[in-house]
């Protein structure tokens, strides 16, 4: 599975962005999807995940209530809607796909395939 992330950009604090992650294969629907981010000089961290059937989602505390992860299996695409953006949300955002157990969803090791990353910059 190849993943193509897009939708990043430069926005002001309080603005919104929607990231997209397009998968190359219909088998995308069998994978849990995750979004991670990596700020300059920091490690990659978990942001959000959605289970393969779309019925369950999970979020990092730092984005809970502001970000929403979703998926459209018909379009082989996952999304990350980001509202009320803050300067501390500035990072490269990566989408990922994996078939490991849902309990491992916050670990990057649970994902087998990664997109190339899209940069989100939030100015104050």
- Determine the fraction of residues in helical runs and give it as a percent range: under 10%
What is the H/E order? EEEEEEEEEEE
Rounded Rg = 13 Å
Outline type:
globular
Strands, total number: 11
Roughly what fraction of the amino acids lie in strands? over 45%
Overall mean pLDDT stands at 95
Write the layout of secondary structure elements.
Layout: E1 3-6, E2 9-12, E3 17-23, E4 32-38, E5 44-50, E6 57-59, E7 67-72, E8 77-82, E9 91-98, E10 113-114, E11 118-123
Index terms:
single chain, 124 residues, mainly beta, globular
Can you tell me about this structure?
The protein starts with a strand and ends with a strand. It has no helices and eleven strands. The strands form two sheets. Strands 2, 4, 5, 6, 9, 10 and 11 form a seven-stranded mixed beta sheet that branches. Strands 1-3-8-7 form a four-stranded antiparallel beta sheet, with no helix packed on it. By secondary structure, it is mostly beta strands.
Condensed summary:
The protein has about 120 residues and is mainly β.
């Amino acid at each position: 599975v190849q993943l193509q992330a897009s939708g990043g950009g430069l926005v002001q604090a309080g603005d919104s962005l929607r990231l997209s992650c397009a998968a190359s294969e219909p088998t995308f629907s069998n994978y849990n999807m995750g979004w991670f981010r990596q700020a300059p000089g920091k490690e990659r961290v978990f942001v959000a995940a959605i289970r393969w059937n779309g019925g369950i989602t999970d979020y990092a505390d730092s984005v809970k209530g502001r970000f929403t992860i979703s998926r459209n299996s018909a379009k082989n695409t996952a999304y990350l809607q980001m509202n009320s953006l803050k300067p501390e949300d500035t990072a490269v955002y990566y989408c990922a796909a994996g078939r490991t157990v849902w309990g491992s969803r916050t670990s990057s090791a649970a994902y087998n395939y990664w997109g190339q990353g899209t940069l989100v910059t939030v100015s104050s």
